[in-house]
Design brief:
The chain is built from six helices and no strands. The protein is mainly α and 116 residues long. Helix 1 crosses helix 3, helix 2 packs across helix 3 and helix 5 crosses helix 6.
């Protein structure tokens, strides 16, 4: 049986803060903590450590999570539905250009409003 134990996030952040104060970079900190605390940590990505380093460099040493809200949608589904119903012959490219988003974003929204 494999038992994986993970450290509390605040302990990891404290370790990253300590590594940052020691002058190590994010890659070294990720490597050091993965090597040193292997039995306690499910490997974390270097990008995660880089995010903490950016916060520390900016002077933010708070170990609390910052709010992560959903990003604002660029495409209003009601407006997209109106546009499509007004002119159903528009191509995906035309719609993407009109709403200033990618083809895949328009495709996703068309699926959401049942127009695919």
């Amino acid at each position: 049986m494999l038992l994986i134990v993970t450290m509390d996030k605040s302990i990891l952040r404290t370790i990253f803060e300590h590594e940052s104060c020691r002058g190590t970079n994010a890659v070294q900190a990720a490597r050091n903590s993965n090597d040193e605390y292997d039995k306690y940590i499910v490997y974390h990505k270097r990008t995660h450590v880089r995010g903490w380093y950016e916060r520390f460099r900016s002077g933010d040493f708070s170990l609390e999570d910052h709010a992560h809200g959903k990003p604002n949608l660029k495409v209003d589904n009601d407006m997209l539905k109106e546009v499509v119903e007004a002119n159903p012959s528009q191509t995906l490219s035309e719609l993407a250009e009109q709403f200033d988003v990618s083809h895949s974003a328009i495709s996703d929204h068309l699926l959401q409003i049942g127009k695919v």
